[in-house]
From TrEMBL:
Lineage per the UniProt record: Bacteria, Bacillati, Bacillota, Bacilli, Lactobacillales
UniProt gene name: mvaD
Family: Belongs to the diphosphomevalonate decarboxylase family.
Example GO biological process: isopentenyl diphosphate biosynthetic process, mevalonate pathway
GO molecular function: ATP binding; diphosphomevalonate decarboxylase activity
Listed name of the protein: diphosphomevalonate decarboxylase
EC number(s) from the headed UniProt entry: 4.1.1.33
Annotated source species: Periweissella cryptocerci
Keyword Lipid biosynthesis: yes
InterPro entries noted in UniProt: GHMP_kinase_C_sf, Mev_decarb, Mev_diP_decarb, MVD-like_N, Mvd1_C, Ribosomal_Su5_D2-typ_SF, Ribsml_uS5_D2-typ_fold_subgr
Enzyme class: lyase
Amino acid sequence: MTNKSTARAHTNIALIKYWGKANQELIIPTNDSLSLTLDQFYTDTTVEFDANLNGDQLVLNNQLITGKMATKTSAFLDLIRNMASIDTPAKITSINHVPTAAGLASSASAFAALAAAGSDAAGLALSRTELSRLARRGSGSATRSIFGGFAEWIAGDSDANSYAQPFQENVTMDIQMLTVVVDATEKKIGSRAGMQHALSTSPFFKTWVTESAKDLVTIKEAIKRADFATIGEIAENNALQMHAINLSAKPGFTYFNGATIQLLNIVQELRQQGIPAYATMDAGPNVKIISQSTDTETISNAIKSVFPTVTLEVAKPGPGISFLN
């Protein structure tokens, strides 16, 4: 047992979305998904097991955290402790370089980093597949953040066969995500609650699952041939379908705000002008624009003309899990 370890995990943004659990306890999704890991947003987490502690301690962004988040973190560490046959408390120190709970996949990088650091500190030599399975238990999308570039989450139907795998880690095509942060505050409806409400009440949920399976086949072929336009078209359509499911729930809900709609309109106008730009959104109002580096300035100028003070981040394909020990 090494006692202490530090790991870094990057966020990923799903191009084919995960939205809905077939098994809530094990976090097994209703459909396969595919994402792109990003270089700019990441979480650094240190786990140190210390028998002198009275219980687990969570320090996030230099603040001691208690309550629901701390309880969830301890429950996740219990999975690691059970695997390692230990009962030692731990101090978890995490720096999150992602706005938390704003639809920018902060939980993906957080639990991927926690899975890696915690298991390593406990003396477990887990494979990347095993790490992916473990990270999934904290946050579904975390299962993909173990890998860099394009990663595919195979839904499976049990704890043993639900995990992510690399699809194309060495991304050579010109693809990036321009993240437009219009609201970094915590969302009112969490992802877990939102997706299960949609699954339980939307009359179109089964159609969403069927269409996502078709989208996955199409986008994988497009990635293989570096067909940027098709990748963007499929990703945007898949995201809009996911959010349409939310609107069709009973009662309906949305993560969009007025700025989200304006940004979607800007993206459509850019395409009409011949600029290949495509939008994707997760559980939050912020928009990620799938684009190419040659168009960064044009897209940024178009956005700044409407939102002069908005925060823009350009992210390119990023790496998988790494240790900083």
